[in-house]
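To whoever is covering the structure queue this week,

Two jobs came back overnight. Logging them here so there's a record in the thread.

Job A:
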Amino acid sequence: MALSLPKTCAMGSSQTALVGTIGVALLNPDGTVHTARATANIYEIGGGCYGKNIAFDDNWKGSLKWDTGGGTPVYAVEEYTIDGLVDAVIEDMDDIKGTGFVKDTDSLVDIRPDIADAVWDEVLTGASHNIPTSAGRRLRQSADVLIVREETCQAGGANDEVILDPGASAVDDFYLNDIIIFIGGTGINQSRHIDSYDGATKTAVVNRDWTTNPDATTDFVIRVDSTKHVHGLESEALDQVAGAIFTKIVEGTVTLEQLQRILLSFIGGKTSGGGTQDVRFRDNADSKARIHMAVDDNGNRNTVTLDGT
């Protein structure tokens, strides 16, 4: 590609291929601007001046080739002045050709979205972007701490199940008590605690039914949550709390649940015996004696047998 010079340098149609002196400014990738005096073969075409085979006498050695295929530095050019600087660097810089640009009118401002997209789309693998305290390492550490797995389901399973991807853990209950969240596809924006996990079938059973069952289009993440909370066990919490209360031993080996059965038989069950005869209190179904009191000839209780089962 020829280097375009200002039209003020027009030489007249009879003057072509002259060696002239020009001032050139180069914008480096680091943002610095360098200027230099250069000589070039200057041509007049259609009333404008163009230069090629530019050789730098100051600051650069050799020749600088302008090549649209391989990309070029960003440049601005004016006629050479006494101090060797360029008059219109700032004005021209937004409308000039640069490395990787397609056409002369491409602007540095135009590529800012591309740079931002490239940064966000950069893949963090292995030790890439892993400098201590860097943004790359911080992102990786955050993901390692919070996200156990991120994939796409094989299928939905039953109403309270989900079949994870084939590469999920083969260890039973590996994801026990963790939280699975649907982030894409069918059933998106649902989350549940994992109550059990079958490593052979990759099936996770969650704490309550899905509002919308997942399928093979459902994208998921599994978040670490190893502590088992009551609020995360809604389907079982009441039964677990009640069971813990009723199995509490209140005296000897008698639990609260057994005591309630015994008291019910004493208050509302059938009885037999009395006086010097053994006394029995039947259960509510009249299937067995819950209280059996053996008495002596004076009617005193000698032994008492309780059955709260």
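Job B:
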Amino acid sequence: MSSKWRRTTANQTMSTINLGSLDKIPLGQGLSFKVGDLEIAVFRQRDGKLFATQSRCPHKQGPLAEGIVGGGKVICPLHSHKFELVTGVGSEPHECVKTYPVSQANGEILLQV
């Protein structure tokens, strides 16, 4: 497999998964995807930048894809905690979300897991 589709890091192999058309996610919104055993939320800011995190808030398991997206953050729809989309750091330092590399090519969403 070419390095375009798989990258090896310290004791970890990452694969690129094509999630389909970028048009699935309107600007300023998120959408949840099932990838194997994982549920991942992919966000598309109004400026077109893509971000991906675990789909559930660690506090009350709120569906982050349904939260408000902007300024590099997502706000949980259940309790208004904010999470940085780049780092996953939350407004409560002990509550963070896992982030995933995501990009787009030729109008398709490419997620690395």
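Note for Job B: The first strand starts at residue 6 and ends at 9.

Please reply-all if you pick these up so we don't duplicate work.
Q.
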